[in-house]
């Protein structure tokens, strides 16, 4: 088996039973904000596009590049479609002219001669654009797991496919917190450090559990080459960003797991695996060039910025004309109010108005009243300032997932009072009737009926209130606070209150309290 790095989460897998093109992206994506790091334009895209299978893990534009596909990927390629609850990804792929679709089933292996594959989708509202997935591949000579951005919960089922020898996983951030938020600089630096730590913990959790001999960090970081975003590359010019690179993570992994074999996976990295033997070579960059990219990163990024402004200008020119404020308000009312009326979970979960300043338009999304109206001077706990051309473009394109467009672009600012509210951002990735109804049903089914488990001196519900992870495997308790290692969410066990966001209480009791209760029950 031969795996060639294509940049970001992209890879080209050559097996005894055929080749698979995974998540190919050149970009730029997210309104011209994200570029693959390092530059991957010089790869032989004609060759890689002529694969037997195409696998797009999810709709996020740093994994799904329609322009690249149109240019390089033949329309008759076999497409491995993850089994998602809504058909948005399928509609996107068919709109590009791809009809040879293989409908995979969640966690069910498929055989293509010597090639065996399995696609494992995740379907929670916070999994990417309502859906993320991993790809397991085995051809009898080697087995790999391409986990990319996904955070699977049932690792036992995932690893029952086969024991992966090579493991490819995300270690960098893919979020806008805390960079865009209205915070004092010292607070932003502190939150950025906490976020990087949480990302590292999650990556190490999976590395420990998968326990593959060979680990390849991938799926980030991006390059930010727009002038106003350039300072957020890496850890940031002011230590207020979250984008760990491959070399930084491998150094961290070596400290915690010194026996683990890890490798830099960049555009042109070629990994050959045959019956347990591995060779790793570079086909695009020399070792000296790779050293310079990582060790002299800011100068490398500056060169990229100075030579790629034409790509950014072309993206800006493709945006829609800015709508007049009254027209924009009317469009958003007509689009969002019917969704708000259907979205009881969102109305209750947000619980108040959210202010949005969009160019000259100042509006609120009044979640309790299911209204979109002009701002009336009231206090709000969440607020956004967004360029009007971005919103006008999303209205023109009827973009149903604003996380997959405006928010990941980081071309906006935000503020909040109090804790993170996941219902706000989930609403903005559910701007269609199908998505609203799916998420409403998903949340309605999350009332916990699972068994309890003993964790130290506590009895706790087995399933995490956030995304149903098995807390007997993912939880750590310190000073009465439980932390789930998958997303670093925290709960105060004495009260059951979630410390990371609104809602999501946990069922927990201290064992000594339970014993005391039992002792005071009168004998029959």
Strand order in the largest sheet: 7-6-5-3-2-1-16-17
The proportion of strand residues reads: 25-35%
- Share of helical residues: 25-40%
Low-confidence stretches: 514-524
Mean pLDDT: 93
List keywords for this structure.
globular; 524 residues
Concise synopsis of the structure shown:
By secondary structure, the chain is of the alpha+beta class. Helix content is 31%, strand content 25%. It is globular.
Can you walk me through this structure?
This protein has 524 residues and is α+β, with helices and mostly antiparallel strands. 31% of the residues lie in helices and 25% in strands. The protein has 17 helices and 29 strands. The strands form six sheets. Strands 7-6-5-3-2-1-16-17 form an eight-stranded mixed beta sheet, with no helix packed on it. The chain has a seven-stranded mixed beta sheet with strand order 8-9-10-11-12-13-15, covered by helices on one side. It is globular.
Task: Summarize the helices and strands and which ones pair or pack.
Elements lengths: L1 E6 L2 E6 L2 E5 L11 E3 L8 H5 L3 E3 L10 H7 L5 E4 L6 H8 L5 E3 L6 E3 L2 E8 L9 E7 L4 E6 L6 H5 L6 E5 L14 H26 L3 E5 L3 E3 L21 H11 L4 E2 L6 E6 L2 E6 L4 H9 L1 H11 L1 H9 L7 H18 L1 H7 L2 E6 L2 E6 L4 E4 L7 E5 L1 H10 L5 H7 L3 E4 L5 H7 L4 H12 L7 E4 L2 E4 L9 H4 E4 L2 E4 L4 E4 L4 E2 L9 E3 H9 L5
Parallel strand pairs: 3-5, 5-6, 6-7, 11-12, 12-13, 13-15, 18-21
Antiparallel strand pairs: 1-2, 1-16, 2-3, 4-14, 8-9, 9-10, 10-11, 16-17, 18-19, 19-20, 21-22, 23-24, 24-29, 25-26, 26-27, 27-28
Helix pairs in contact: 7-8, 11-14
